[in-house]
Structures are given as structure tokens and as C-alpha cells.
Design a protein that fits this description.
about 350 residues; 15 strands; 6-stranded parallel beta sheet; 13 helices; Rossmann fold; alpha/beta; 7-stranded mixed beta sheet; globular; Quinone Oxidoreductase, Chain A, domain 1
Length: about 350
């Protein structure tokens, strides 16, 4: 089979690799579409992992083979593959901190080499513990593979919205209107909140309004805080979701978030970035700072319900489609987006 093999920093090799061999409790999925995630891009562009590896995890496809001990799954079923499943019995899991679980973090879906997701290949192997514990989800007939590939990123965004306790009637500032920021806008609206978005690109500012933001502004606007105050009866927003790794965006969030409000870090910052802050700002204004990393096992079914019942318009997020052989070009497009670049999807079947 064909796969894009990570051979070193910014070195992808489109090559022939052996089709994964199945154990008795495993499932082989033919990849139909896989989303290009920011975490994939970081793994490809920075020295974070030893090669060789095959990345890709926002995967939807068709079951191509099942091990003899597999129950409840048959060849031909259309499925979403979820690459993270926690152990459910460690202290982290017992406190619903599933993404901190060692079993969760140890990715085991694989297309070869060290298991690393495996979606950037013709086929991906799903290990037994993921098969048995909800890591395969059947795709309804009326849902496309493209739409289904959004279940995992929807879960990640949903976890952040839930952690920030966004309530009906609240106003939420979303910094960054890329595919993640736009999904935040949709989810905030779905849960009854009012979204305000910021970005640097005029097209993304317009797109945010198109998908449901009540207002959207240029992040460089010197009157941003005043404009947001005007939209919130002088209070400021209830919550800010930081969807870009920018210290400037954080300080804007401090200016725009009301007393007693919340600021949630969703985007991962470079490790060398440090943000100086006077702790009295948090103390006197009672601002809650929090982070949200990856997805939540507890929210898998809700994320699937939101996508499969089209409660948000994931089709509006797709801008680019690339064959698997052109993954390097897709990464380049994501790093240097055009005015119209949002979510990029990859297709093994296109060659």
C-alpha cells in the first residue's frame, strides 16, 4: 500500500509500505479521507518524534478486514477511527482527565513503524482495546466521509466549550478564525451563546460572520476592547477562547474579558514562549485561566451527534482537498494559507 512516511524534519516520503497485519482482535480500515490537523503539521515540521512514522488521525474510512475475535464489526462498514481511548481506571480517568491518561496518550492506531495515527496511508490498523472500547463509530448512510472526519476535531473543540462552561446568553470571544476558531463560533452559537471573533485576514473575518459570529474584528484594531465593551453593555465577554498561540491575543483577552470571566488556552504555544502577568490582575478581577488539550472520552457520543445530525455546518470549513501523494504541498498550504484556506482534507484514493 501507499503511505506518506515521515523520514525527518519536513521530510515526507510517498512510498510503498507493507499493509498492516491484523491480530485476532484488530480491525483494518481503508482510509477514505483524513483531515490535516495542526498537530500533524507540528510533528512534521519540528524535531518532536523520531522517524520513521506515519501520522494522520482525523480518519474516516471503510472496514477492509476484521480479526477472528472481533465482535460487532463487519467488512464494508463505514467508520470513524478515534486514535485515543483512555484506560478508564487510572486516577486521571477516574477524575475525567482522560487526556492525561498514559494509555490515552500512547497512540496505537498504525499504518506501520512506530504507531503514530496512521491516517496518511491507504490502510490503518485499529488495535483491540480501541475496537472494544468505542474507538470505532459507524457513519450514518446520509453522512459523507468528509463530514465524518470532523468527529474528532469537533470533540476537541467541544471539550473546550464544555470546560469553559459556556451558557446560553453568554458572550464568547474567539481569537483566530481558522478552522478551529470557526468551529468554536459554530459550537458557541449551537449552545446558545453569542460569538465574537477576531482574525488578521479579512476573508476569515467575513467567514466568521457567515458561520454565525455576531461580530468579527481585525485583531489589530486599536479600538477592539472598546468595540467589545460596546457589544456587552460595558462588561466585556464572559469567556475568551484562545484559538491562536499569540501572546498579543492573550493580552487582548485580558482587556476584553469581564471581571469574573474565563480565558481558555486551546492553541499550543511554542515551548520557549513565556507570558509575564501581574497576578493581581487575576486576583482583583477574579479571572479564571484554564487550558484544554485534545478530546474527551466522555464527549465522544455528543461530538458524533453534533456532526452526524448536522447541528453545525462542517462542510463550510473545508477549503482544500489534496491527494495523499501531495501531502507535503498540503502542509505548505496550511503553513502559508491563502485568503480562502480553512480546513484541508487528504484523500488516499486520489493517488
Amino acid at each position: 500500500m501507499k503511505a506518506q512516511v515521515f523520514r525527518g524534519v519536513n521530510q515526507l516520503s510517498y512510498e510503498e509500505v507493507p499493509k498492516p497485519e491484523l491480530g485476532d482482535d484488530e480491525v483494518l480500515v481503508q482510509v477514505r479521507v483524513v483531515g490535516l490537523c495542526q498537530s500533524d503539521i507540528k510533528k512534521i515540521l519540528y524535531p518532536l518524534y523520531e522517524p520513521p512514522r506515519i501520522f494522520g488521525h482525523e480518519t474516516a474510512g471503510t472496514i477492509a478486514a476484521v480479526g477472528k475475535d472481533v465482535k460487532g464489526w463487519q467488512v464494508g462498514q463505514r467508520v470513524v477511527v478515534l486514535h485515543h481511548i483512555p484506560c478508564m481506571h487510572c486516577d486521571y480517568c477516574l477524575n475525567d482527565n482522560f487526556s492525561m491518561c498514559d494509555v490515552y496518550k500512547n497512540i496505537t492506531t498504525s499504518a506501520g513503524f512506530t504507531p503514530s495515527g496512521g491516517g496518511f496511508a491507504d490502510y490503518v490498523k485499529v488495535p483491540g482495546h480501541i475496537v472494544r472500547h468505542g474507538g470505532l463509530m459507524e457513519i450514518p448512510d446520509e453522512i459523507t466521509f468528509e463530514q465524518a472526519s470532523f468527529v474528532e476535531p469537533t470533540n476537541c473543540c467541544l471539550k473546550a466549550v464544555k470546560k469553559a462552561q459556556v451558557q446560553p446568553g453568554q458572550t464568547v470571544l474567539v481569537t483566530g478564525a481558522g478552522p478551529i476558531g470557526l468551529m468554536f463560533v459554530m459550537l458557541v452559537k449551537y449552545f446558545g451563546g453569542r460569538a465574537i471573533a477576531t482574525d488578521l485576514l479579512p476573508s476569515r473575518i467575513a467567514k466568521a460572520k457567515e458561520v454565525g459570529a455576531e461580530a468579527a474584528f481585525d485583531a489589530r484594531d486599536p479600538e477592539l476592547a472598546q468595540k467589545i465593551q460596546a457589544l456587552t453593555n460595558g462588561m466585556g465577554v464572559d469567556t475568551t477562547l484562545l484559538a491562536v498561540p499569540s501572546d498579543k491575543a492573550f493580552f487582548q483577552a485580558l482587556d476584553c474579558t469581564r471581571k469574573g470571566g474565563k480565558i481558555l488556552f486551546f492553541a499550543e504555544f511554542p515551548d520557549e514562549v513565556e507570558i509575564p502577568i501581574n497576578p493581581n490582575v487575576l486576583y482583583r478581577r477574579e479571572i479564571d485561566l484554564m487550558g484544554s488539550y485534545s478530546s474527551s472520552y466522555r464527549l465522544q457520543n455528543l461530538a458524533a451527534d453534533i456532526v452526524f445530525n448536522k447541528r453545525i455546518d462542517v462542510d463550510a470549513l473545508v477549503s482544500d482537498r489534496y491527494p495523499l501523494k501531495d501531502l507535503a504541498a498540503a502542509v505548505e498550504r496550511a503553513v502559508k494559507p491563502t485568503e480562502e484556506t480553512y480546513k484541508i482534507l487528504i484523500y488516499p484514493e486520489l493517488g
